[in-house]
Write a structure and sequence with these properties.
58% helix, 274 residues, two-stranded antiparallel sheet
Length: 274
């Protein structure tokens, strides 16, 4: 007798629509992540050690806005370059075809780093100090984003027979890992708890940023073993997915940053770490 598996709830991705305007769950998840980052950061910026490091509420609110723009632009550009480059070469306007979706975390990260670099130069704050403040604000938004993927029934996992395997509407009849929920848990809840706990005490400048890169890179690398590779890319060298190859440099750079932070002669506590 064939075992019964869980069925994806097949939630309508559109919450409500009025004429051509539609509010989607995925967009709502982005807004929830942004709202949490703003709330958590606003609490942190009021602490003496952060205000003494040059943080003000206005500076922080400006940074949140531009970082959000960096996520959107970098995420889209990264997706096109990393995952759909052939489509872009065939039709450069594909870059602007945002209605059909397509975002890359690694591209969004590069977009945010660009914004942070500009912000650091403008405010004359060390880039690593800015990164240390921002890093703990990111994971919850990542977790909400993965929940949005699950609601949309996209980016499903590989075929599996585990008891919690799930049949997704557009993934055929085979049950699969709900890898979006794995990512929401590891990249969202676990990574946030790790960073929030680590950053409670002053740390060497760059240590919190380094831990974020290691934590996300490891979480993403592991979950990729359960996530279905992109159909047009498949598995690459060593049987690794594109997500794993993009995460490996994050882990190595993060580890190097933490070693540098703790060994540097200028090993002063990062007053700007959240």
């Amino acid at each position: 007798m064939q075992p019964e598996y869980l069925m994806h709830p097949n939630i309508d991705p559109v919450i409500v629509s009025v004429g051509p305007l539609a509010v989607r769950w995925y967009g709502l998840m982005y807004l929830l992540g942004l709202a949490f980052a703003f709330w958590w950061g606003s609490r942190q910026v009021k602490q003496p050690r952060h205000s003494q490091a040059g943080w003000t509420e206005k500076r922080f609110s400006d940074l949140v806005f531009w970082s959000f723009m960096g996520v959107i632009l970098g995420g889209r550009i990264g997706y096109v370059l990393f995952y759909k480059f052939a489509d872009f070469i065939a039709n450069p306007l594909f870059l602007f075809d945002v209605l059909n979706g397509g975002m890359s975390f690694h591209g969004g990260l590069l977009g945010v780093i660009t914004v942070l670099a500009i912000f650091a130069k403008k405010t004359q704050m060390p880039l690593l100090r800015v990164g240390d403040f921002v890093a703990p604000l990111v994971p919850v938004g990542l977790g909400f984003g993965r929940i949005g993927n699950f609601i949309n029934g996209e980016l499903w996992g590989r075929v599996s027979d585990v008891p919690w395997a799930m049949v997704f509407p557009d993934a055929g009849p085979d049950p699969r890992h709900p890898s979006q929920l794995y990512q929401a848990f590891l990249e969202g809840a676990v990574l946030f708890a790790l960073l929030a706990f680590f950053a409670r005490k002053p740390r060497p400048m760059g240590a919190v940023s380094g831990l974020f890169l290691i934590g996300y890179g490891c979480a993403r690398f592991v979950v990729e073993f359960f996530r279905q590779p992109d159909a047009h890319l498949g598995l690459l060298s060593l049987g690794w997915s594109m997500g794993q190859w993009l995460s490996l440099p994050m882990i190595l750079i993060g580890a190097a940053m933490m070693v540098w932070a703790y060994r540097s002669k200028g090993n002063t506590a990062a007053k700007g770490a959240a």
